[in-house]
Structure formats: C-alpha cells, structure tokens
Design brief:
Elements lengths: L2 H10 L4 E9 L3 H12 L4 E4 L8 H4 L20 H6 L9 H14 L6 E2 L4 E7 L4 E6 L4 E9 L21 E4 L14 E5 L3 H10 L5 E6 L6 E2 L7 H9 L1 H8 L20 H14 L3 H4 L9 H18 L4 H7 L13 E2 L2 H4 L5 E5 L5 E5 L2 E4 L4 E3 L2 E4 L8 H4 L2 E3 L6 H7 L15 E3 L13 H21 L5 E3 L1 H16 L29 H13 L5 E3 L1
Parallel strand pairs: 1-2, 1-6, 2-3, 4-17, 6-18, 7-16, 8-9, 8-16, 9-12, 10-11
Antiparallel strand pairs: 4-5, 5-6, 13-14, 14-15, 19-20
Length: about 550
C-alpha cells in the first residue's frame, strides 16, 4: 500500500471520542476549584486550558507591574484553613509572579494537574438534544462527549488585539498586555508607546518609566486613581490573618463587594461636612479600594454626592500633578463621576508624567489613525516614532471568552449570535436554551466586574456543584433555566442598574469599548451579599426556575 492510500485511510478513520461526566474550560482560580469540587463528587471530569500552565488571569497577564488590588488575606480560597496558612504572601498586594506561583502551589497541593489538558483550546461545544449531552471539540483534534460543561473562562480573557489599521506593518514590536510573552520584553533605553490608561496601562506606565529611553502615553479616557499602600507581610502578619480565617471568610461573603470592608459610615446626608471629609481622608489613606467601596454609597446614585467625592479625588490628583494645566486637563476626569468606572490603585503613576522623557498624547484632540512602519500616526499628521508599542487596550469583557467559542444550544442556536443581539443570563449561572452549560465570571452576576473575584467565583462554583449534585440525587440528567425565570432576572438586573450613575457612563462595564456590543451593565450591581442570598434561596427551594428532567 502506498503512502497516499495510507493517508487516505487515516483521514477516513473515525476520531476516538472521550466520554466525560463534566468538562471544565479554564484552569484559573475558578477552574481549579471547579475541577476539585466535581472530582470530589465522584464525577469523571477533566479541565482544558489554552495556556501551558495554571493561573488564568495570572498566567496570561504577566506584563510589567501586574498585581491584584484585593488584599492578599482576602484574595483566597476558603475551603481549607490549612491551605490558607501554608502559603504566606510577601505583601498586601502581591505582584503577578508571586500570584502565579501561589496558584501552581494550590494545583500541586490538590493534585489537579493530572486532570488538566494544557495547551488546548476549546473550539466548539454543541448540545445534542437527543442525548442531553454536549459534543466538544478542541484545537488538538480531540472530541469529548460530556454531560456537563462548566465554562470558567474568566471575565477579562478575550484581548482586543486588532485595534488599529496597519498594525502588521510596524517594524518594531507590538505587545498586548493580556498576551505578554513569558520571556519578557527588553525595554531598556528604548522608545516606547503605551496605548491606554486603564488599570492595566497605569500599572505598566508606572513600572517601566525608570527603564525606558522615552515613553509616549496615548491618553483617551482619563481615570480617577487612588494611591496603593502596599506594606510587606511577614510570618507574624500571616499568622494573625490565619487566626481570623473564619471571620474573614464570613465577612467577605456578605459585603457589597466581596471585600472585608463595606459601606458602614451611615448616610451622606446624615453626616456633617467635617465627618464626610474625615471619612474620605481615612479611606484615601488606607490605600485600598475601600475609597471606592466603603465610603458612601450615595455617590453611585446622587449626582451632587458623586460630584463632591469626585472633586475630593480631583484635588488630590491636581496636587500630585503640580497643578500643571495641560496635564490636569488631560489626566483628570471631569465628565464622569468617581467610581462609575473601574478605580485603579497605583504607585507614583501621576508623577511619571513629570519626567522629562515622558510625553502624554491627547487622543481626544488627535486620535490614533493608524499604525505605520515607524510608529503611530495621529490625526494631526504626526508620526510618533517608537521601537515598542504596548497595547493596554482592554478586553471584550465578560462575554468575549465564550463568544469566541462556537457554542450552540437547543435548535442549533448560537450563543455568539444571541449575545450580539442582547447579553442575557440567568443569574450569571446559566443561559436559557443551553442546557447543562454553567458559567462563572459571567454577565449579569457580580463576578463580571463588581466583586473581589475569589469571593464571587467560589460562590458560583459552590452553587453550580450543589445544583449538579441535586439533579443527580433526583435522577435528573438535564438542567436549564426557564425563559420566564431568565426574563425575571434580566428585568431585576436592569432595574437595579438603572438606579445608578454607572449606566450613564461609557466604559467596559457597559460594553462601550467594543464596537457594536449591546449596551447593558455587564455586572450585577445589587451587591455580593444580596446576590448570594438570592442564589441560596433558589437552592433551598429546590431550584425553582431551573427546569430539570
């Protein structure tokens, strides 16, 4: 038999199909925990991860300066006090390399790697109505037949890479912060451009400023910023946190944001001007997100309160910018209120603009028109010549990671096509029309944006696991939210959001950063504690609104 005939037979040979009870997409914070939970339930479960290692966000986002802005003592798994005690973070807000090492430590401690397929991207997942199962295909040529799919794909894991005409013509290097090379990028003494000054861009800018030869920062939307206070932790510090393990666990599950602080200063309108100022100064000095999520909730609802709080922050920023008129005009927001965008924590970020080798380019006055071989062309005809372009231009948040997979539910419906018309979920846990598909870090739940992520992700994984266990115990094979229950949740979500100033502001929270994306607040803003209570009520009542058969 010749080679051609053998090749033809090989092509005709049917591909083996792997049978699973459950498939987890992603090996980040929630994917690792979901794998652990389903494995403990006795399910035949495997996880599939596009990267070569665990970590999710902390695997992909290894750009200079990457670190989380929830304190280490609450950016935690809560299922095992011994696990909590065993890893001792070095500081209040650890940087990416330490966080990635921690998640590898967790994966090893729980022996999870044996059930994870690395370097494998899910291409499609189609629901078979006859069997009540999903047929999933990977970029490695694998086909998996599974009862349940749990998508732990992350809410900021679909980078917006192709943003400007002519990118491929650039003679230097272009790097998106969400796809930063493992080997790093040599910036020493080079001419560097940074596009974007959201939370990621700010971390990059403040970190690389001392090493680059020159830096041009392309500014479109200015951000309110809060200085980070990041003390070192020692063993004694961590011992004290470990003693408070149960207290911290209970605390974060019931606050508005899933943090260990909450709005506990009374009403803005019942406070004197002196008390209001004292509260703002106290939380400003704390150097955490408490300035945003633990001062006065009225700033999210009442324009006059929003303006006072915003002006407090503006005054702090003006002082740091030495009241430079041009910099203040470009870098200090004035057309939206503090907290209606994501609030970044930073370390000497504003001071970078006072360096002689740093220039801020106003993209509102002179938008970027194209990337050219020499650098960046702006609308005034200027070509900004650079060696490296860093794109801190964000993500297709909450929905993008799933719409980049060909997911088809009952009647061949496409999740991508449905979400292009309107972003809908049932409590962020499932979507009507897609039975046995569960999601975390998902639209219309707090975890899409407004939560200390570990708090919300664990809550969702626990709920999903309990729901699957309940169905199995009652001999049910298929779980799907009803259209009526989903409509109720979407209506409640929208009514809650409409009462706030957040929906009046253009940001990635509203999908405004992606052309054509339907406008809806991606994250539930009713509070983490309230969301947990609603989910617990549904579970305790036998999952009304979730049809099982």
């Amino acid at each position: 038999m010749n080679d051609t005939a053998e090749d033809t037979l090989a092509e005709q040979k049917p591909t083996a199909v792997t049978q699973l009870d459950a498939l987890v997409i992603g090996a980040g914070f929630s994917g690792l925990y979901q794998l652990k939970k389903l494995r403990e339930m006795g399910l035949n479960v495997q996880a599939f991860e596009a990267g070569s290692g665990v970590g999710g966000t902390w695997y992909w986002n290894r750009y200079p300066g990457a670190r989380f802005d929830s304190q280490a003592e609450i950016y935690q798994y809560w299922f095992d006090k011994d696990l909590y005690a065993a890893w001792k973070p070095s500081e209040r807000f650890p940087a990416q390399p330490e966080t990635e090492r921690w998640l590898n430590f967790v994966a090893d401690k729980l022996d999870l790697r044996k059930d994870i397929h690395f370097n494998t991207r899910i291409l499609s997942a189609h629901f078979n109505e006859e069997t009540g199962r999903w047929l999933v295909k990977t970029d490695q040529g694998e086909t998996i037949d599974t009862r349940y799919v749990v998508a732990c794909t992350g809410m900021l894991s679909a980078p917006l890479t192709d943003r400007f005409p002519g990118q491929s013509s650039f003679k230097g290097e272009i790097h998106h912060t969400g796809l930063w090379p493992k080997e790093g990028v040599d910036l020493q003494g080079k001419r560097v451009a940074v596009i974007g000054i959201g939370a990621t861009g700010i971390q990059v800018i403040q970190t690389i400023a001392p090493e680059v030869g020159s830096m041009k920062v392309f500014v479109r939307t200015p951000q309110y910023v809060v200085p980070m206070r990041n003390p070192k932790y020692d063993d004694d510090d961590w011992g004290k946190f470990t003693e408070r393990f149960e207290e911290l666990k209970a605390r974060v599950q019931n606050t508005f944001s899933g943090m260990d602080y909450d709005f506990e200063n009374g009403s803005w309108f019942d406070s004197t001007p002196e008390k209001r100022l004292a509260v703002l100064e106290q939380h400003w000095a704390d150097g955490s997100l408490s300035m945003w999520l633990a001062t006065y909730p009225e700033m999210f609802f009442i324009p006059e309160v929003s303006e006072e709080v915003s002006e407090f922050v503006r005054s702090k920023m003006r002082e740091r910018l030495k009241n430079d008129p041009a910099l203040c005009e470009m870098l200090i927001p004035k057309d939206y209120g503090f907290g209606t965008h994501r609030v970044p924590l930073e370390s000497n970020y504003l001071e970078v603009y006072l360096q002689p080798n740093v220039e801020a380019i106003d993209c509102k006055k002179t938008p970027i028109e194209a990337i050219v071989p020499e650098g960046i062309l702006t609308a005034d005809g200027t070509v900004h010549e650079v060696d490296v372009i860093i794109m801190a231009v964000g993500f297709d948040a909450a929905t993008g990671a799933l719409t980049r997979i060909d997911i088809r539910g009952r009647d061949g419906r496409s999740l991508k096509e449905e979400w292009e018309r309107e972003v809908r979920t049932t409590m962020g846990l499932q979507v009507h029309g897609y039975p046995n598909l569960f999601i975390t870090g998902s639209p219309l739940s707090p975890s899409a944006a407004l939560c200390n992520m570990p708090t919300c992700l664990q809550q969702m994984v626990d709920w999903i696991s309990d729901c699957i266990a309940y169905a199995r115990q009652h001999g049910k094979q298929v779980i799907e939210p009803t259209a009526e229950f989903e409509e109720q949740w979407v209506r409640h979500h929208d009514e809650t959001a409409a009462a706030t100033l957040v929906v009046k502001t253009d940001s990635w929270y509203m999908g405004s950063n992606v052309d054509g994306k339907p406008r809806r607040l991606l994250s539930y803003i009713g509070g983490v504690g309230n969301f947990r209570k609603r989910c617990d009520e549904v579970a305790s009542q036998g999952y009304p609104g979730f049809a099982m058969q």
